[in-house]
Amino acid sequence: MLAVGILAGCTTKYSKAPVIMATFREGEEKISNVGSEMISIQECDDVNIQEWQGLLMGGYTKRVLYRECTKKGELIYNGVSKNTLKVSFREYSMDMKKPNFFQDLIYDLDQDKVIQFRSIRIKILDANNSIIKFIPIDWGKKKEIEEKFPNTKFEYVVELF
Q1: Which of 63, 92, 120, 146 is the most interior residue, by most CB within 10 Å?
Q2: Of the candidates 104, 48, 111, 46, which has an alpha carbon nearest to the alpha carbon of residue 77?
Q3: Which DSSP string do the residues of 90-130 spell out, in sequence order?
Q4: Residue 99 contacts by C-beta under 8 Å, 6 or more apart in sequence?
């Protein structure tokens, strides 16, 4: 009977794998409209299922069962006035329905064209009351995560929901 299980049996294991989804890449130019997201980062876990199909069926098969997202942060462009850039930060957790943290940010572009919020540095190329052109130049937290948690998967996505 054991031989039948090894050859054709079925067992199931579940595991989680961390995933960070971001709407930007370092060094890549982006354009955003007033009131829209400049950049966004979402922390998730892929819940994987690993099933033993038996040796006759090729052994284990592994697939993502679903993705469970727990935290999202986004910068929203709010316009510019007299070379003062206005941005909002929103942070969501668990249900993602409403922000649990909100912060208005103001940057003086006469002082520096590179702005920083937490570990993300952004070079502003052009900003007016319609659009902003920018390049995310450094994301220090990504390097820290890669060092501490080398199994974390990073994904670039056009838009997060």
Answers
A1: 120
A2: 104
A3: EEEETT-SS-SEEEEEEEETTT-SEEEETTEEEEEEEE-SS
A4: 90, 91, 92
pTM comes to 0.80
The SS3 call for residue 161 is coil
CA distance 154 to 76: 22
Q: What is the DSSP letter of 55?
A: G
d(CA 112, CA 77): 17
CA separation, residue 114 to residues 74, 124, 125 (Å)? 18, 6, 9
C-beta separation of 42 from 69 below 8 A: yes
Domain segments of the chain as ranges: 9-146
Residue 17 parent element (H or E): strand 11-22
Burial class (CB in 10 A: 0-12, 13-18, 19+), 159: exposed
Closest of 72, 77, 73, 78 to residue 31, by C-alpha = 77
- Amino acid identity, residue 117? F
Chain centroid to Cα 18, Å, comes to 11
User: Which DSSP letter does residue 59 get?
Assistant: S
Q: If you ran DSSP here, which 8-state letter would residue 145 be given?
A: H
